[in-house]
From TrEMBL:
This is Imidazole glycerol phosphate synthase hisHF. The active site is at C141 (for gatase activity), H246 (for gatase activity), E248 (for gatase activity), D289, D447. GO terms for biological process: L-histidine biosynthetic process. L-glutamine binds at C141. Belongs to the HisA/HisF family. In the C-terminal section; belongs to the HisA/HisF family. The lineage of its organism: Eukaryota, Viridiplantae, Streptophyta, Embryophyta, Tracheophyta. Gene3D superfamilies: 3.40.50.880, Aldolase class I. It is an enzyme of class 3 (hydrolase). Its EC number is 3.5.1.2.
Length: 592
């Protein structure tokens, strides 16, 4: 496919202030990669605008036009629209935008490559014309940001220029963690219409850049959100809407936003749904460790200190259920996020492991909260000599329904290399994926093991005084990172790794602890405190949850943004709702 830059003036009347493609930086290999992959996989062809003529609108009441330019997870919005009974017509030409009855633009990825593609395909001009004509439009996330004049993301880069203002990065020096990931509350203006059912409930955000309210854009703003500062969470003018949050990832309340956009004549809700949202909520995440058992079935398993085999003569892989079924159950139970970790991914090639892709595809049909997938994300050459970049692996996961990918072993090697050389090569999977999809889409999963020492100077890694002394009375410990599912210890500590991967572009840290895994005795508070105090990105505390009290403890004693558990949920010992209720009682804000 060629990303054509043919003039669009033959079909659209001339307009002012259009972003000129010459002001956009040259197409990055990443954006072209995405675009080409998209065309290749979706059998879609973007035609030159010259070949178009404006047709009369033909969409039915249950049809919606979707502008998918090929980056990130657009499957979720497709699934949400289908779930709501709508059929989707994909934009293939700029003319499809002009002829749409209602258009959804779920922008994902980074600002510059997105604008690059929009300009080169003539879509930018068509979008501006469509919006100027007050046609029904819903932009999501980057689809909101692109409406502004420009963005500082790898820029400045010119946007569509529909709304006055510059999209800038959240200021982490104000003591907030960037990216802004999680469920936050809105301050909804009067005439928002599509937000009528949101009321005082949390919706899901994931972004590092935001537009801020000003006198010039105040007429557009339909809601704001607070995260260190007030930023624009939605805009509305006439039939044109855009939201910074992800309705397709905001559970039932998010689906109501889409429903109201698709059915603008729905009666206004007299009383918004109940809720008590006021700020960013602490997240409760359900984690599914997935692997193939000895019979060849893909199962959810769970280890004790990473040993997932039964202590029986058969020594079978523990089978705690089917991945898609369990994920669906956890969604209904109120999980704020679901993680799938392909725990044998370090030895199998993920794209050869199609069941994992299928799990994502099926899960994302009915689960409307964020999905993370990890395991085996790295560059790979298969038996026939075909080389797959980690970017291709990640792209396939995103296309299959993942919102974030999680990198384990490969991030350890990248961090070791970076610490040794002091140079960011830009070639590691972590750097490549975060460059293309944004760092909010990249989680680094750390599998550390506690190593007790007698003295802080015993090892060249960050050593802390531990709350509970070691078996020989040792008062200190460091946390050694491992690879290959805990099988191999590496010469790097969790502290050093966390700092390095933040530099390399990780957007979030999933902090496991081999010693605590499956023990049900609580999170390793010393470790979670160490890491969550050392980095500016969100940290997910993982391993060891046994009771609801363990969740409140980790939120009260550390700066963790989320807490993850597996065994207690799989064995139905503690329902997710009980955890949430307990956190509420302890006055810790959660999404209910
Ligand atoms: O190295 O990029 O291929 O990624 C492999 C991924 O698989 C890593 O994220 C790694 O953490 C995970 N993994 C590998 N082996 C195991 C294992 O258990 N044998 N699982 C494994 C890690 C840890 C948690 C677990 C919590 C909570 N599982 O995710 O869910 O400890 O458990 P609990 O609440 O029951 O205590 P790569």
């Amino acid at each position: 496919m060629e990303a054509t830059a043919a003039p669009f003036s033959s079909i659209v009347s001339s307009r002012q202030n259009l972003p000129s493609s010459s002001s956009i930086r040259a197409s990055s290999p990443a954006s072209l990669f995405l675009f080409q992959k998209n065309i290749g996989n979706g059998n879609r062809k973007f035609k030159s605008p010259r070949s178009l003529s404006v047709r009369a609108s033909s969409s039915s009441d249950s049809g919606v036009t979707l502008l998918d330019y090929g980056a990130g997870n657009v499957r979720s919005i497709r699934n949400a629209l289908r779930h709501l009974g709508f059929s989707i017509k994909d934009v293939q030409t700029p003319g499809d935008i002009l002829n749409a009855d209602r258009l959804i633009f779920p922008g994902v990825g980074a600002f510059a490559p997105a604008m690059d593609v929009l300009n080169k395909t003539g879509m930018a001009e068509a979008l501006c014309t469509y919006i100027e004509n007050d046609r029904p439009f819903l932009g999501i996330c980057l689809g909101l940001q692109l409406l502004f004049e420009s963005s500082e993301e790898n820029g400045p880069v010119k946007g569509l220029g529909v709304i006055p203002g510059i999209v800038g990065r959240f200021d982490s020096s104000a003591g907030i963690r960037v990216p802004h990931i999680g469920w936050n509350a809105l301050q909804v203006g009067k005439d928002s219409e599509i937000l009528d059912d949101v009321g005082n409930r949390h919706v899901y955000f994931v972004h590092s850049y935001r537009a801020i309210p000003s006198d010039e854009n105040k007429d557009w703003i339909s809601s704001t959100c607070n995260y260190g500062e007030s930023f624009i969470s939605s805009i509305r003018r006439g039939n044109v809407h855009a939201v910074q949050f992800h309705p397709e990832k905001s559970g039932e309340v998010g689906l109501s936003v889409l429903r109201r956009f698709l059915h603008p004549k729905l009666p206004a809700t007299q009383k918004p749904m109940e809720g008590k949202a006021s700020k960013l909520a602490k997240r409760v995440i359900a984690c599914l460790d997935v692997r193939t058992n000895d019979k060849g079935d893909l199962v959810v398993t769970k280890g004790d200190q990473y040993d997932v085999r039964e202590q029986s003569n058969e020594n079978e892989v523990r089978n705690l259920g089917k991945p898609v079924d369990l994920a669906g159950q956890y969604y209904k139970d109120g999980a704020d996020e679901i993680s799938f970790l392909n725990i044998t991914g370090f030895r199998d090639f993920p794209l050869g492991d199609l069941p994992m892709i299928q799990v994502l595809r099926h899960t994302s049909k009915n689960v409307f909260v964020p999905l993370t997938v990890g395991g085996g994300i790295r560059d790979f050459t298969d038996a026939s000599g075909r080389y797959y970049s980690s970017l291709e692996v990640a792209a396939e996961y995103f296309r299959s329904g993942a919102d974030k990918i999680s990198i384990g072993s490969d991030a350890v090697y990248a961090a070791e290399e970076f610490i040794k050389s002091g140079v960011k090569t830009g070639k590691s999977s972590l750097e490549q994926i975060s460059r293309v999809y944004g760092n909010q889409a990249v989680v680094v999963s750390i599998d550390p093991r506690r190593v007790y020492v007698n003295h802080p100077d015993d090892v060249p890694y960050k050593v802390i005084r531990v709350t509970n002394p070691g078996p020989n009375g040792e008062e200190y410990a460091w946390y050694q990172c491992t690879v290959s599912g805990g099988r191999e210890g590496r010469p790097i500590g969790a502290f050093e790794l966390a700092k390095a991967v933040e530099e390399l572009g990780a957007g979030e840290i999933l902090l496991n602890c081999i010693d605590c895994d499956g023990q049900g005795k609580g999170f390793d508070i010393d470790l979670v405190k160490l890491i969550s105090d050392s980095v500016g990105i969100p940290v997910i505390a993982s391993s060891g949850a046994g009771t609801p009290r363990h969740f409140s403890e980790v939120f009260e004693k550390t700066n963790a943004s989320a807490a993850l558990a597996a065994g207690i949920f799989h064995r139905k010992e503690v329902p997710i709702q009980s955890v949430k209720e307990h956190l509420q009682e302890e006055r810790i804000e959660v999404r209910i």
